[in-house]
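Cross-posted from the bioinformatics board.
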Amino acid sequence: MKHHRYAVALAVLGLGVAAAPAAHADVSCTVVEVEASSADTPSMDPALRPLEKKLKKPPFTSWNVFKRLGASTVSLAPQGVASASLVHGKFGLLLRDVTERPGKRARLSLGITLEDAGGKRVVDTKVNVDAGDYFVAGRPLPDNKGHLVALTCK
Amino acid sequence: MTAPRSLVISPNPQPNVGQNPVSKPTPDRSALDCMLLADGELPAGEAAPRGPDADATVASIQELGELVRGSLELAADDAEPRLAGLWDLVERRLDLPAAPAPAPAAARPLWSRVWTWLAGHRSHMVTGLVSAGAVGALALALRPAPEVRTIERTVAVPAVTPTAVLARTPPEVESIDVGDGTGSVFTIDDEDGETAVLWIEPAEYDPTEGI
């Protein structure tokens, strides 16, 4: 009789596990802040090697010096919000949704905000990207410089 | 008793009339005495033959001996050069030291004895080698063709794990709010995929920002 109780309990527990919706693991997002400028001698920060090929294509060909100002990594659950202080402002991130697709990369829905150094909102956008792909937001800075913020989540 | 027949040697021999011509003459005692007398070898007690026949016989024997002696001397003179060389050779042989005695056979090494034995049986060895070569050549010529052997082996190789190639989806920008500024969306395509670039141009440019 006692064994029957254990069996029923295990069966109920197993049904419960099978019926539960698949929980999404936390998504790790990395924010990289880059300052672009022009100089007689081109240079590329070694820390920017994952972005090197992208930074050598338009519209980034206006500059030839790329320096990484900082980077931060945050872990987000769906509907999770995170922010990161930048040298030239502030970066806000919202993980709106994660869509798992068979045979394809997970699709991430992101809400991104960017403020300048004075706290003024520069942009507020919603984008959908594959996990592992980059999204770059850029704006001009004085002295013909550029301020780039690259984001990738996986 | 019959008297012995005598052989009379005379410068003018007479035919034996009434005698058997094939019978062998018997030497006469007087003839022997004449030859001994002619040679000077007649014993002292013997009586020398007398008479004209005996004198003639002795003279003839002496003359004949002179002739023979002279002939022999001439022959010796002819043979003297050849005999002289022969004598020189004999003298040289006699003057040579004695030849060393040959080494005892027991001192010969084993290989030398084996080689001597092989040399003595050379014909047998050659015959054996030729026969063996002929047999070997026949065996090679008549051997069956080699069979092509096919060996099948099962080799365990690590399983190849298929690499999942996940399809990519281009980035999408649902909405952009840049306030008074303007925004432009670019797409950078490389081997890593497509990258969305949002470029914001603020309406009011703050020249002091970042200073």
